[in-house]
Design goal:
The chain is globular, with a radius of gyration of 15 Å. It has a 3-stranded antiparallel beta sheet with strand order 1-2-3. It is α+β, with helices and mostly antiparallel strands and 91 residues long. The chain has 2 helices and 3 strands; from the N terminus they run E-E-E-H-H. It has one domain. The longest helix is centred in the C-terminal third of the chain and has 26 residues. 4% of the residues are buried.
């Protein structure tokens, strides 16, 4: 279950999804549906099969995970930039 990191609500709207080349996850930009929160956050969604493969792989999987973490940091930087350039209504 996806939970808002700001208020804990389990209700959110996915605005966009990205499948990265050579990545085993789908990245989604979300907004909390709680009217008092409306926080924007992102998720990485792995299938259970892909997650099990990552855990069971050799040392190369650690390098792959590190690269995926770098991608996540880039995504977060982009979201923070977007957040800073929009007002509370998303304009």
């Amino acid at each position: 279950m996806i939970q808002c990191p700001n208020c804990g609500s389990r209700e959110s709207i996915a605005h966009q999804a990205r499948q990265r080349p050579n990545a085993n996850y789908v990245w989604r930009s979300r907004t909390c549906k709680n009217p008092q929160c409306r926080s924007t956050f992102s998720t990485r969604e792995y299938s259970l099969e892909e997650l099990a493969k990552l855990i069971d792989k050799d040392d190369q999987s650690v390098v792959d995970l590190r690269n995926q973490c770098d991608d996540l940091l880039a995504d977060l930087t982009e979201l923070i930039t977007q957040y800073r350039t929009t007002d509370a209504k998303g304009n």
